[in-house]
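debug: dumping io for the single-chain case to check the tokenizer round-trip. Nothing else runs in this session.
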Amino acid sequence: MEAVLWIVLGVVLAVAEIFTATLFLIMFAVGAFAAAGAAALGAPVAVQAVVFAAVSALSVLAARPVIRRHQQTAAESGDTPFGVEAIEGSTALVLERVDADKGMVKIDGELWSARAYDATQVLAPGERVQVIQVKGAVALVWRDVATPGELPEAER
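debug: decoded output
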């Protein structure tokens, strides 16, 4: 009967993890399933509790470094950035006037919707800008100090 209670606790924790998506409760679910195994083997309740605590703690200790490594940005981990991370910090060419409401830029040969990072800036076509941040499919840009003549050939 105790094994069933541990299994129910494990299932409840696993289902709760689906709603939190923190990868924290699932480790306690693993501990509960291990305690269910101990209960099925006839271990006393005190031993079941120790198995639950030990397996849960070991799960947290083993999984935490892996989770942290996967949560780091490419810049933090020293890897080559890709996707949106690679775009942030790059230069772009203004194709259509960019202000706080609308605009269009060319980043590495691709057209992007853009908005001025500083709402007071208005950027004219032909200006060089720097991508400060990407929100969804919109690049937030800032006027670059370089002149349009210094643009790389791919951006002209």
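debug: round-trip ok. Residues 45-71 form the longest helix (27 residues).
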